[in-house]
Automatic annotation (TrEMBL):
One Gene Ontology MF term: lipid binding
Primary localisation category: other
Record's protein name: START domain-containing protein 10
GO biological process, one term: lipid transport
Residue ranges of domain START in the record: 1-156
Segments traversing the membrane: none
InterPro entries: STARD10_START, START-like_dom_sf, START_lipid-bd_dom, START_lipid_transfer
Organism annotation: Rynchops niger
PANTHER family noted in UniProt: PHOSPHATIDYLCHOLINE TRANSFER PROTEIN, START DOMAIN-CONTAINING PROTEIN
CDD domains, sorted: START_STARD10-like
Keyword Nucleus attributed: no
SUPFAM superfamilies associated with the record: Bet v1-like
Family annotation (Pfam families): START
One CC-aspect GO term: membrane
Length: 212
């Protein structure tokens, strides 16, 4: 769990940043690929995300059900991992599991907000202790700072990139295929292959990934 105060970024702007998959490529340097698979309701969809892990660890990916809710001037986005028959685990990734991950954006006046982030993730694989420590101490706080900086730059970027297109705000713009809840099931970690990475040492971490 972590939080960051975002000065000069309205809550609604940060909400757009977290939704906008096109913009994510601009600020999320850990992302390999992300896309929306389909929609369940006007405020819930299923999506795919793959994450570049520091070498020599294997890269991870997720298939998640995400839902969102405006709460007056505040916003909430939560997700958890699901199985989708057309998106099974891939050989080139370790399929990780989001037990529950959420963002809460609380307005702090008209032009500032506070972002809260809580995640329970099973990365699968028997990871060395140093990896877990690195993620908790460095990766999550750095990711929050990236989101804040992305929020500062988003209005200018969005003005040049289909400014009226926000299907998370205007459901009638959503052209994703419908997904039935019956097609999905909760992704349980114990049904996935376990990759043993405990033998890796921090000395072998690729230097190019230290900023992850």
């Amino acid at each position: 769990q972590t939080r960051i105060s975002c000065k000069d970024v309205p809550a609604e702007t940060l909400y757009d940043v977290l939704h906008d998959t096109r913009y994510r490529k601009k600020w999320d340097s850990n992302m390999i690929e992300t896309y929306d698979i389909g929609r369940l309701t006007v405020n819930a969809d299923v999506g795919y995300y793959s994450w570049k892990c520091p070498s020599p660890l294997k890269n991870r990916d997720f298939v998640t059900l995400r839902s969102w809710l405006p709460l007056g001037n505040d916003y909430m986005i939560i997700n958890y991992s699901v199985k989708h028959p057309k998106y099974p685990p891939r050989k080139d990734f370790v399929r990780a599991v989001s037990l529950q991950t959420g963002y809460l954006i609380k307005a702090n006046g008209d032009s500032a907000c506070v972002l809260y982030y809580l995640t329970q993730v099973d990365p699968r694989g028997s990871l060395p202790k140093w990896v877990v420590n690195r993620v908790s101490q460095f990766v999550a706080p750095k990711a929050m700072k990236k989101i804040y900086k992305a929020g500062l730059k988003y209005p200018e970027w969005k003005r040049k990139h289909d400014p009226g297109y926000k299907p998370w705000v205007y459901p009638e713009q959503n052209t994703l295929p419908n997904v039935s809840l019956a097609e999905l099931s909760v992704q349980h970690a114990d049904s996935l292959e376990n990759i043993d990475e405990t033998g890796l040492t921090e000395d072998h971490l690729s230097t190019s990934d230290h900023e992850a």
